[in-house]
Amino acid sequence: MDFISMITPEALVFFGLATLAVAGALGVALASNILYSGFALMATLGGVAGLYLFIGLDFLGIAQLLIYVGGILVLILFAVLLTNRIGAVNVTNVSAPRALGGAGALGLLGLLTHVAVKTDWVLTTPVSTPTTARIGDAFLREYLLPFEVASIVLLMSLVGAMVIARRAVRDRPLPPVQGATAPVDGAERLL
Amino acid sequence: MNGWKDSLGNFDPNALMYQLPFLLIVGFGLLVLVLEAFSKGSSKRWLMWVAVVGIAAGFIGAYLAWKKLGVMVPGDAQVVLDIARGAAPPSTDIPYRELFDGMLIFDRFGVFMNIVFLVGALLTVLLVADYMKEHGFEFGEVFALILFATAGMMLLAAANDLITVFLGLETMSLAVYVLTGSWRRSPKSAEAAMKYFLMGAFATGLLLYGIALIYGVTGATNLHTIATEAPKVGSNPLFLIGVFLVIVAFGFKIAAVPFHMWAPDAYEGAPTPVTAFMAAGVKAAAFAGLLRFFGHALGNERLVWGPAGWGSLMWLLAIVTMTLGNLSALRQDNIKRMLAYSSIAHAGYLLIGVVAAGFGAKTAQPAVLFYLLAYTFTTIGAFGVVAWLGNRGDERLLVDDWAGLGSRHPAAAMAMTIFMLSLAGMPPTAGFFGKFYIFRAAMEAHQQLAGQTGMMMALVVIAVVNSLISVYYYLRIVMAMYFREPARETSPLRSPAVALALIGSALFVLQMGLLPSRYLDMATQSLIGR
Amino acid sequence: MTSDFPLYLIPLLPLIGAAINLLFGKRLSKDTNHYIAITAVGGAAVIAIHACVSGLWPLWKAGGPGTPSLTWQGWEWLHGAAGGGMGETAVSLKAALVLDPLSAVMVLVITLIGFLIHLYSAGYMAEDKRYATYFGYLNLFTGAMLILVLGDSLPVMFVGWEGVGLCSYLLIGFWFDVDKNANAGRKAFVVNRIGDFAFLLGIFLTFYFTKSLSFSGVRDGVGEITGSRIWGAPAQFWICLLFFIGACGKSAQIPLYVWLPDAMAGPTPVSALIHAATMVTAGVYMIARLSFLYVTAPTVMAIVAGVGAATALFAAIIGFAQNDLKKVLAYSTVSQLGLMFVGVGTGNFTGGVFHLMTHAFFKAGLFLGAGSVMHALHHAKDPGDIREMGGLRRKLPITHITFLIYCIAIAGIPPLAGFFSKDGILAGAFAFTAPGVPRFYGHLIWAVSSLASLGTAVYMFRLYFLTFTGKFRGDHHVETHLHESPAEMTIPLIVLGLGAMAVGFVGIPAFLRSHHEPLFVRWLSSGDAPVQALALHMSSSREWLLMAVATGAGVIGIIVAAALWLGGPRPAVVSLGNGLGPVKKLVASKFYIDELYDLVLVRPFRWLCMAVYQIVDRFIIETLLLGLVTTLVDFSGRALRLLQNGHVQRYMVVTTMALAAILWFGMRPSDEFTVQPVMGAQNTISLHANAHDYGTPNAPQRKYKWKCATDDPWKAGGPDKTCEYPNPGKYEVQLEVHDDLWGTSNKSSKLIRVGGD
Fold first, then answer.
1. Among B170, B275, C110, C522, which is least packed by CB within 10 angstroms?
2. Contacts with C272 (C-beta within 8 Å, 6 or more apart), sequence order
3. Residues 113 to 142 of C: which have CB under 8 A from any B CB?
4. Is the pTM higher than 0.95?
């Protein structure tokens, strides 16, 4: 198979979206300004949403866009912008041996790529039927339990976030030392 | 056994009985949240009793589920007796019940694990209330978080599908991250939570990646479907990578070397009762998952061994974990850090049990269960004494701080001695039999291998040498308590709840050492169903 | 023949006493403390005597099949399945106790001597701050020791074994305000763990073969052990060797004896009870208990006897170099334990146990006597230094007389206890024969042991003469405070002295009693021979001769000691520079003889002793062996801490690299394969390549090539292969694995034997 014939419109779209996602992820990790990281995340999430749509997962793609790009990402950016002191925090915390870390990560990448390329993948053609009904059905049948448990996970995350983030008004002063009460004079004892 | 299987179409409300402990714990967790929100007083200590009642209800639920599972097979009593006497029943005879389209499986293994988690939660709740009050960071949600984490553990122990494995793991972990950082005033607590969360999130990523790869190759997330597909997909490298990634993710949760590095920092920084909860409950839950997926579903001599089987990897992890855990513990002066490394070493011993179970050693599953129960009592007890000793934001963590405890507080020193002896695996404590059963299971696996390889034997020898090394650092504390003059004044917590937890665990540790049969019987009846 | 008896009461009483004294002791008065402790042990002694006299004795008299024993069934302790591939056996182990003739001897020794030592402690420790704790530990020890000897199975024995180790550790370091003492305790514990490790491995191996852990079960399963081999040697060789290493740790034999001399850091009654009379003899007891196993392993028996004899001589030599009262006694204990091992090692199990019993009396007495002396000298700088003593016989008459009795007993002078037991061991060693062991070996052991007894007599009487005869050499201030000890200390001394004179008579050798087996031997070897007795095949003239040699050794030793040390040490060097006249010099010339003697004999000998002590004991064992181990452990601990420096980034890096390594190495194809004979087919083997994972029949990217023999061509095939061989012989099987994914191809080969044996 020669190289030219591999350049199909599908391939172009796929590689375009994949590049967007990967480049965005690199941006998130490497940008030194946290705001840039946030914007780079948008590219990643958008790219992934595009990939979902590309393989015919209509609901998942749209949900990804609505929830992650439209909701969570905006919240993250708001949080970054509203947290006034975050600029004072030194976000580039260089202490890891970069060469070693890079070698490990690259090794892992090489290994996974090698395996992915060499493996004979089972190919299926994507079906372009709407998936919404199937997803809804699955949520109320075989995935009922995960669906319900997910609500507990979310509730707990909320409570946890609140515990961690709320102002420390509930941190009361320490109780007095046992056995070391203030001297009591006679008058008070009478009272 | 399709007759037992339920789907939504013929959903049997009675089947919820099996899930009773889980439902009760979640229910009481919600109740605590609501009560917390509407309560007026400043002290939240009374919520502890709500949680205790919830856990007690959980115990009753577990008892009912245990009973109900016992009568599912006709003549079950005889079967159970035979298993206890050493007969090897075909695994289909072990009563079990699948629910929610195979998402969950209920068998006595799960119930036993539920009891372990409930014990852990109960002791933690008793310890944490007065500890928080003493150190000035009291808040009511902590009880809810502990209950939710326990529910997550229960889910993990009953998970029959990688999706539920993931959900259970996350429910548990998220709650514990928050608990770790709950001591707001302490920078160490915040640091610990951050590290634990970062590494934990990394592990979650690996787990999801692994699940995705396994799903990609086998087209299934159900453990049994995966197990039946596994021989067909063979050495598909993607499948192998998936399996290894799952092992690594579990390795994070059980703090196996080299994925343990978060553990000493997180254990040290977290509030001590939470550390106890992490060391006992989280580890036990992860081992329940490991046993179900690896020890049982993928457990078959050919699946386990071989250069790329999960067995050789876990074999290696077990050795490295035991050895490095113990060697690092030798030089710790901070008791919480020392116990953290000790807990790492114990994960190594437990991994031996998982490998042995993979080879089909009949005694391995009960051995791991027994060990987990013994370890839960012991380690929470030990951390409990640590928590008890500190006061007023001043935790007494250095070995020097423990000097002379034997003459000041003989009962506490004796309890700590019992826990240390148990951790070191010396008779007549629970820890001795825990190790004894694990080693015996490994020897059985060695026999199963019929001399093909001496690897299991080597594992036992290394483990015995390791437990010898460990004696040294456990005895350092005993020595400090009894052989040195008191250095500073101590004014430990005055709390009946903490005293109850400590005395209770010490008694159980002794009882499991003196009368282990009863608990081993129970563990032997608690085999994995399918 | 057995009957039931609530034996649990015997260890339970001391344990209850321990619990009371350890938990509430501080709130009670000192009187209450020792009443509780002494009553607990006394009660145990009464019950033990009752059990022996009215329970065990009639059973023994009645004879009949089986070992006479009293049992307490206990509760079911552990059960489960044993065995894997070949089928399973249900195993059930009871936490049961048994009182048979062997354990009866031990129980009586422990409770009676323990009772006396508790009594003595009430006087000796009267001034101590941690009085209650002391008695708590002592009771705890007694309970654990009783569990050790009464246990009906290896695990129960192990519980007691660990328990006494713990108590020993706690009591050695009892006066922990001196660092040295605490370290001595730790050393004892660590060295003992080496032995315990071997013991535990021995238990595992025994269980592996016999599927049983109770002594009777193991005895029934001995056939399973003797029929198997491990690494080319019979299984019983390894098992017995492991048990012996365990015994070496507890009973202080070469090379694990190092902890015992240091253990003298503990209070003196503790040395008497734990480190002389009871705990250290546990190893001898264990071997006697397992005698049925040891007789199947003559090589190990020879090793036991050899190590015992070497220890006996070695410790006797070191004993000369010591100037501390308790240190001399400690090395003497090591030496006597060596003799006991000579006894059990030469198949003379009853002889070993007999010496154990007599030794318990006189050595406990010696320690208590030493304690009494040190009690009197407590104003001295170092109360234990025998160079600073002398002439104590007038000030401490009771201590003096009893100490003399013990010394005569240990020197082996008839008719005191030590004579009979030591003579029995030496005679047994002389007659030792075993398959595969040369005839002269027994004679050699005998000669070494006799030399050791000679040495024992010399240094024990050196101790006696230096301490009790001559003039007091210490401080005048100390001399004015000399006094005899209180009654609670002297009464135990007297009782033990009577014991040291009397107990020997239960073991009068056969040929002195018109060839009736001694009572002690008949007692131990009744029934199904719970303790193997040695049948001596010797003419009585030879026995007389051996007895004369043994007695002669003792007498000569005493004479030598008297010549050198009677009335205080001979002034070895007379100062020549003090301006005395030539006449006086001449008068003093007899001292030249002394000097010469000193220069030629005494000094070199002392140097030799010191050299052995310094080089072997202090340097090789202490510094090199123990030091090396601790340094290694220490170093690795430090190195590991470097990695764990608190930076999450570094943790991430380590994790990533580990993950990459796991995936990389985990997925490499392997060229290993396994070989199994095919059942039912002659000269056929099946091969199975491990390279294909997860049992897939044909991994798509891997290609296998097999070669059944060196001359065969390569044949392509799957991961499984069957080879047939027309002729028996040796063949080389080869496998080549080619993997497309990795682009690798690996070869491996194995040598196999077909047919024949």
1. C522
2. C117, C120, C363, C364, C365, C367, C368, C371
3. 130, 133
4. no
